[in-house]
Amino acid sequence: MRCGRLQNLPDSGTIISMPRYEPLNTGVPLQASASDLIAFQWQTDGIAADFLLPGDDAHLLRVSFDRPCIVRLLDEMALSTEEDETANEGLVPEHFAYRLEGARFARVQSEAWKASGPTAHYQFVTGWGCMDVLSAGSPSFSVVARSG
């Protein structure tokens, strides 16, 4: 496992990894609790997801990956009640984008996926819709015009 920190549980003797959050810079200020996931598109060998930019009705923040992905979309309520084995390290209030190490979502994927090469776990948190992405690619961030 590539994760940085391991913890030995005295009651079970099981070694588990502690979820560790590394905040990512999107290049755009964004109040996470006021944002939302409003569009998602599968693309050839990747994805694109659009998030609200609070206070800007004319633009969206697009998060895209250009490599195969495993994606999980869920409501913030489900994410906030998800239990991992230990406390989360590195969470920042109102922050939107993270790279994670040691979270359960990445650990429980198939051996075939894990054998396909090194991948990273990314999480994008809003006050409503959230997105987890497992990919060998890195996210790219761009501000796009909001249509309609």
How would you describe the overall organization of this protein?
With 148 residues, this protein is mostly beta strands. It has one domain. Helices cover 10% and strands 41% of the residues. The protein is built from 3 helices and 11 strands. 26% of the residues are buried. The N terminus is likely disordered.
Helix content, binned percent: 10-25%
- The stretches of 5 or more residues where confidence is low (pLDDT under 50) are 1-12
Strands, count: 11
Task: List the domain count as a whole number.
Answer: 1
Our count of helices gives 3
Q: Briefly note the structural class of the backbone.
A: mainly beta
As a whole number of angstroms, the C-alpha radius of gyration is 16 Å
Overall geometry comes to: globular
Quaternary structure state of the chains depicted: single chain
Mean pLDDT: 84
Could you give the distance between the termini? 45 Å
Q: How are helices and strands ordered from N to C? A: EEEEEEEHEHHEEE
How much beta, percentage-wise? 35-45%
Give a short account of the largest sheet: 5 strands, antiparallel
Order of neighbouring strands in the sheet with most strands:
3-8-9-10-7
